[in-house]
Amino acid sequence: MATADAPGNGAHDGNDTSGTGIHGIHIGSVQGAFAIGNHNTVTHHQGSAPAPDPAQQELLQAVRALREDLERLVGSPEITALTAQLADTEGEITDTGAAAPGRLARLRTALTDAGSVVGLLSSGASVVQAVSALLGG
Fold first, then answer.
1. Where is this region: Disordered (predicted)?
2. Within a 10 A sphere around the Cβ of 116, how many other Cβ atoms?
3. Which of 4, 8, 10, 33 could in theory staple to 42 by disulfide, Cβ–Cβ 3.0 to 4.6 A?
4. What are 83-132's pLDDT values in tens digits?
């Protein structure tokens, strides 16, 4: 608790120049973070972020590698769909820390549909393995 006009704190000289009879600033209790004055910035982090799931991080690395490999190939509808699913999966892991089961199922379907291309790329095999591990099969 802070008071600007408490006796003996040196913040108030006893002269009320505002004519209101109210002296200084009174702050009862504060939780979190706050700033007083112009041009201040407050950043408050409560708790800490959970540690990233190693399996999700492995999938993220594999997804990025496969996306890079697919950029070098001639496009097809299956590759286009797979590329979109890879981008969505990467975004979800980056934003939330994990790809949800529904996202993983859609990625698995896209991997199956583009199977002839995916099977030729080692990065494709890595994504298939990571998805299978996370979905349990």
1. 1-23
2. 9
3. 33
4. 999 999 999 999 999 999 999 999 999 999 999 888 889 999 999 999 99
